[in-house]
Amino acid sequence: MNNEQAIELFIEAMKEEGKSKNTIKNYLSDLKTFEKFTGVGRGDGVLSARQNDITKYTQQLEKSGLAKTTINRRLQTLRTFYAKLSQMGVIETNPTIEIKAKKVARQNETKWLERHQVRAIFEAIDKQKQGEGKRALQRAIFSVLVNCGLRIQELCDIKMNDIDWNSGLISVVGKGGKFRKVPFNNATQRAVLKWLQYRNLDGEYLFHSERSDHMTPRAVQHMTKKLSEQLNFDFTVHQLRHTALKNIADTTGKIEIVATVAGHENVNTSKRYIEPSLKEIGEAMKRSEFDF
Fold first, then answer.
1. In this structure, are 167 and 30 located in the same domain?
2. CA distances for 131 relative to 57, 156, 158, 195, angstroms
3. How many CB atoms lie under 10 A from the CB of residue 6?
4. Are 283 and 274 a contacting pair, CB within 8 Å?
5. Whole-angstrom Cα distance, residue 252 to residue 257?
6. What percentage of the chain reaches a pLDDT higher than 70?
7. Does any domain span residue 108?
8. Which of 73, 77, 111, 123 could bond to 30 as cystine, CB 3.0-4.6 Å?
């Protein structure tokens, strides 16, 4: 087996385990970076790497000025890669067995939007010079994102029969094909019902575009970019999910509720919404600052 075959085998294994497209994309990018470091022409490249190669690679990453979180992600990719190859019997020795993650002080840098910023997004939608149908579509999409905390792919994959209007729930297919139900409350229901008045395709998906009966993440990202250009702040689709989950955390104070809505397998992933953000810490310290 050569270098490229090993990487392809690993990527296929990750797909079978239900890893997201974005995670797999990062795996591939990180492995290609390490492949360049080892030198593709040197034997089997990453397959012939030894512990000393990993150590030198780590040192190079540190000298490059990359954030420790980025370095840790790239090293974690290598640990996952070699552990899987070892498990599959492709290699005899795992060269990352002694490699440790770089210590990073735990501080919550997750970015979510303030209430006035969310209001500004919807006001920008209403001001756009486009048909009422397009405004209704965008209002529905951004309402679901910022109120239900869905991932962008989860939003695009909502089907008409996933909505239970009587119980106010949406059935969502999350990472790894896992199902969960997410509350679908009054304001969001009104926005979606408004969109349904203009929905002109008899397809199975709730949201469609002019070109397809299945809205794509790229199309939603394009909407977001255009809106962001009209505002005095930048925002991303994923920030809307963060905002929804932060709002739930602030309202309930219960990490289990946040984890259930978010579709997190491990409640520790949801801690970022319970823990204070750097901005909140800064504001608290500003209020308590000594000034003599």
1. no
2. 54, 21, 23, 12
3. 22
4. no
5. 8
6. 88
7. no
8. 77
This prediction has a pTM of 0.59
Q: How far is CA 267 from the centre of its chain?
A: 16
Q: How many separate domains does the chain show?
A: 2
> What does the pLDDT look like over 32-81, one tens digit per residue?
888 888 775 444 567 888 888 888 888 888 888 777 778 888 888 998 99
The whole domain housing 221 covers: 115-281
CA–CA gap between residue 135 and residue 41 (Å, rounded)? 54
pLDDT over 50 at 288, yes or no? yes
Residue environment code for 255-269, b if the CB has 16+ CB neighbours within 10 A, otherwise e = beebbbbbbbeeeee
Asked if the model's pLDDT at residue 280 lies above 60, the reply is no
Query: Containing H/E element for 180?
Result: strand 179-183
Q: Which residues share a beta bridge with 180?
A: 172
244 located within any domain:
yes
76 lies in the same domain as 127: no
Q: Which pLDDT belongs to residue 54?
A: 86
pLDDT digits (tens, 9 = 90+) for 231-278: 888 888 989 999 998 888 888 878 888 888 888 887 777 777 776 655
The answer to the question of residue 286 being in a domain is: no
* DSSP symbol at 211: S
CATH classification of the domain holding 83: 1.10.150.130
For residues 16 and 148, state if they share a domain.
no
Residue 78's nearest CA partner among 94, 91, 64 is 94
The 8-class DSSP code of residue 159 comes to: B
pLDDT digits (tens, 9 = 90+) for 98-130: 777 666 544 445 578 888 999 999 999 999 888
Distance CA 250, CA 180 (A): 22
Same structural domain, 243 and 131: yes
